[in-house]
Design a protein that fits this description.
There is one protein chain. The chain has 290 residues and is mainly alpha-helical. Helix content is 69%, strand content 0%. Helix 1 packs across helix 13, helix 10 packs antiparallel against helix 13 and helix 12 packs antiparallel against helix 13.
């Protein structure tokens, strides 16, 4: 076969595969959007697929009608930003010293970090610890227990180790200390991995639900996920009461769930394109001359 024809065939197969993969990835999201924008009858009869039927915004109106919903959205944004900043700072502060071979007890600390990836005290001991620290119904109960992710820490340590040591040695010859080297040399070169880990931390906190269910009972501290959960539960109870009373159901729980999913997903989808450029590797190419 002609090499050009073989390359063309390979490109066509790749493009077809990517289009199919993209379609399969978008189908669940399109279905959720369609359910959230469809009226009750098509949802009950199963006629909603990837396109809305009988366009209806009642589910979104029901979500936004709750006066505490916007408060929970604002609090979740604040919590996510604060959590991400603290986690990134603490992860960097822990990772950089562990790249130093002269650090005493370095292997022991690494061993402890790896152990925590496989074993933990469990939910009940963690709850007792948070309660005895008087962190129940505080923002810190959603930050401190997850402040450093061991897996992300190991990723950052590995990236720091991949940076040529000659850069650090040059900075030290110029009179820079460890903190100065970290801030002026290591962090600028590590922006792609730092941005990526920051996105991971932000997504984990934004989608966090179990810890808020355990530690938060004050409505003023309800993050968005907990507020949406309670909204759906209340809707299901109301739905059951209306069915028993032979009344018309205005918003189906399925439609409300779909609207809640979109309400919680859109902010992350908006943020992602701003960080996508940092996912490009190879920033170290040419950093060290001959």
């Amino acid at each position: 076969m002609n090499p050009k024809a073989a390359d063309r065939t390979f490109d066509i197969v790749n493009i077809a595969f990517l289009i199919l993969f993209l379609f399969l990835s978008l189908v669940p999201l399109l279905h959720i959007i369609s359910v959230s924008l469809s009226s009750n009858a098509p949802i009950l009869t199963g006629r909603v697929t990837i396109f809305p039927v009988d366009l209806n915004f009642e589910a979104y109106s029901h979500v936004l009608m709750d006066p505490m919903m916007l408060h929970s959205l604002g609090y979740s944004i604040f919590l996510t930003i604060l959590f991400t900043v603290i986690c990134i700072v603490m992860t960097i502060a822990a990772a950089y010293p562990l790249t130093k071979t002269e650090l005493k007890g370095r292997k022991f600390f690494m061993y402890l970090i790896v152990v925590t990836m496989f074993f933990s005290g469990g939910i009940i001991p963690e709850y007792i610890l948070v309660k005895r620290l008087h962190l129940i119904n505080t923002t810190w109960s959603l930050i401190l227990p997850q402040m450093i992710n061991p897996f992300y820490l190991i990723i950052l340590i590995t990236f720091f180790n991949s940076i040529p040591k000659s850069l650090e040695e040059s900075a030290e010859l110029d009179g820079s200390d460890h903190v100065g080297t970290l801030i002026r040399i290591m962090l600028p070169l590590s922006m792609p991995i730092v941005a990526t880990l920051g996105l991971f931390y932000a997504v984990n906190r934004w989608n966090g639900f179990i810890d808020t269910l355990f530690y938060i009972t004050d409505p003023k501290l309800y993050p968005l996920q907990l507020k949406l959960y309670q909204l759906i539960v209340n809707s299901q109870i109301t739905d059951q009461l209306q069915m028993e009373g032979s009344q018309i159901v205005q918003v189906l729980p399925e439609s409300l769930k779909a609207a809640s999913i979109m309400f919680a997903t859109v902010p992350i989808l908006i943020i992602y394109p701003w960080l996508q450029k940092y996912f490009v590797s190879g920033i170290m190419v040419g950093a060290v001359k001959g």
